[in-house]
Structures are given as C-alpha cells and as structure tokens.
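Can't paste images in this forum, so I'm doing it all in text. The chain is below; anyone willing to post the predicted structure tokens underneath?
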Amino acid sequence: MKLADAFSFGIQALTGARSRTWLMLLAMAIGVASVIILTALGEGARRYVANEFSSLGSHLIIVIPGKIETTGDSPPLIGGTARDLTLDDALALERSSAIQLIAPLALGAAPISYRQLERDITVMGSTAALMPVRNLELARGKFLPEADPTRESAITVIGDKLKKELFGNKRALGEWIRIHDRRFRVIGILKPLGESLGMDIGDIAVIPVASAQSLFNTEGLFRILVQAEGRESVPRAKQAVIDIIKKRHDNEEDITVITQDALLSTFDGIFRSLTYTVAGIASISLAVAGILIMNVMLVAVSQRTAEIGLIKAIGGKREEIMRLFLIEAGLLSAAGAAIGIIIAYSSIWVMGQLYPEFPLIIPLWSLASALGISLITGLLFGILPARRAARLDPIVALAGR
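Text version of the structure:
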C-alpha cells in the first residue's frame, strides 16, 4: 500500500466516525493550548518584571540603611535600622570615579491640599539627579533645579494624576499647594508612567531632599539611588559604596547594597523556573489526551475487525496495518495540535486586549515543545492499538470476532 493511500485511508476512517474523532481532537487541542497559554503567561510575567526594573533606570545601585544577612542568591529588599543613612553619606559617594549620579531619597506620606481639595499622597524628597537616575519625564514645566542639596526650597514637581485631581483642566504651573503645614509652588508636571514596583509615579509630589527631611523631621534617608558610569562599572561602584559608607560609619558595614542586575537576574531565574514548571504540569494534559487516543482507538480496533480482516485477506501485511493505525493517530495529534494553537493564539489575543500592559508573548520553544510532545504522545499511545490490529487473525477478523 502506498503512503498516499494510507493517508487517504486514515482520513476516511476519521471522518467516518466524527463523534469519536472530535472527542480525541478536543482532548489534544486542550492539552496543546494549555501548554502554550501557561508558558506565555510565565514568559509574560518574566518580561513584565524585567520592564519594571528597566523603568527604574540603568546601571542602578540601591543603598538601603541596615545590614541584612542573607542565605542563597536572593537579595534583600528591606533594610534594617542599625544606623540611618544621611545626606552627607550620599554626597560622600560622589568621590568615586565609578559613580555617575547620586539621588538621595527621603520618603513619607503627608496630606496635600489646594483650596478646598485635600488628600494623602506619597512625598518624595530628592535632587535634580532623580530625573535621569529614575528615567522620569516631564509633561510640562521643569524638574528640581541643580542646587545645594542641603538647602531647603519651597518648590515641587507633581504627578499627572495628582495634577488632575487637584487642578482638573486648570493650569497648575506656578500655583501654590500645601503639603502638610507648608506651602510649595508647582514648577513641573511628570509624564504618565504608571506604577513602578508598587509606587504610582502619577500620584506623588517630588520636593527637594532637605525640604522633605525638614517636613518629616528626620535626618535619615529612605534610600540612596546610585547610577554607575556604565554596566562594567557596576561592581566597582558597588564596592566603592560599601567602602565609603563603611569608613564613615566607624568601619561598620551597616548597609545593604543591591544592584539592579542582581535583582533582575534573581527574578528572571524565578520566573523561568516557574514557566518551565507550569509547562511541565500542562504537558500532563497531553499525556491524558494520548491515553484517551489509545483507549478510543482500542475500541475502534474491536469495531473494525472485519475491515482489518479484509485488508489482511487481500494481502495486507502486519507492518501495513500498523502503519495505517499509526498514521491515523498521527493525523489526530497533528489536527488536535493545530486546533490547540488556534485556541491558544485566540485566547492570548483576547487577554492582550483586556490587559494591554501585560506583555503576553508565546516563546518559540513552547510552541515547538507543544507540537513535538503532541505528535510523540499520539504516536506513542497509538502503538498498542496498532499492534493489536496487526496481530488479528484474518479469518477470525473477517468473521467479526
């Protein structure tokens, strides 16, 4: 029997039992779609986190007050309070040639009001360096000017959401607002940037760091953001930060220094492992689909004994009978995989419309894996029914027993 005839025979066998065929196609399609969708979600989560960290700035080093001992590779995210970081500590870091910019951060919550409107917001105290370090952009006006960071100034830059809530469609630049018990003049409006690591940039007010320290009655800093001269300078800049602060803090290493690359690689590894795990779990559904194909085809063999006996009676060999059933299983797997891919792409397109900020991308390896596993599963579980059909005695089979 020619290969083309074998394929034609397999297609006729599948179309002749439509209910059985659709049942097996559905099982395989669900398995393939599950693998692709779950891996796309895992890859999307990994890219989303990568984008979040990229929005923080480039070649970034975060200095946190307090030392945390860690085990494993995961960097600490929250510092202790052994000793405060001060503005003088931050300014001392400018001595290192590996460091390009320093942005001290004083953070707190305070009520903000304009005429009769009032609400609580996050107030961030920093310097002019915060804008390039954090990749902030202005919609209108200007950012904090280059000035002595130890001097207070009654100016502020506000987020776009805060501007809309306080001023609506009215002009905000040049207006005076009250933060806690002090008045600040609005000199700039930030561009909409959305949330970054849990902080809504559109809902903050940025004021000079000395003003923030005075407002919150503290000399300590929340963080110091350091931008290295380049990617290759990050290790040198990190060591310079540790050495300078240690020298200023009586030879005690009481800070936690986190590099952006370390954070990104940690989360990247976590989400890659998660993606592979969910892909493996989803692949189990392909095994279930293969078992269904095997069981249904075993039933089909018992229902088609007369047909098999006729083929053997006119000279059909065992190998040809096996090939017929394996081709049928392969066609089922290929068609089911194609339907599963269509379902997966359609589902991801719908999710992309509902959540446009979440990057849903199907990795090529998951597509290839889903196709490969579905074909291998179908053929593997099709071997038993094929062997059973090939071993039938032609006389007994013709009798329909």
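Residues 83-253 form one domain. The longest strand covers residues 99-114.
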